[in-house]
Specification:
61 residues, mainly alpha, elongated
Length: 61
């Protein structure tokens, strides 16, 4: 049991050494890209909601 746990931790450490972590500029660029896309989607959905609610209000009144 102890051998398998030790082996698991050793393998996890070896796999973690293979990971390439992003640099600070890459993280910043990805963050900005996410903010831009989310802002675009929010504005688009707000516009669609406004058009749909205006259309339904015009039909019902």
């Amino acid at each position: 049991m102890k051998n398998s746990i030790t082996s698991t931790f050793r393998q996890a450490k070896l796999e973690l050494a293979k990971v390439i972590f992003p640099t600070k500029p890459q993280v910043k660029q990805a963050f900005i890209a996410v903010i831009v896309v989310v802002t675009f989607v929010v504005l688009f959905l707000a516009l669609v909601d406004f058009i749909m609610s205006s259309t339904v209000s015009a039909i019902l009144s």
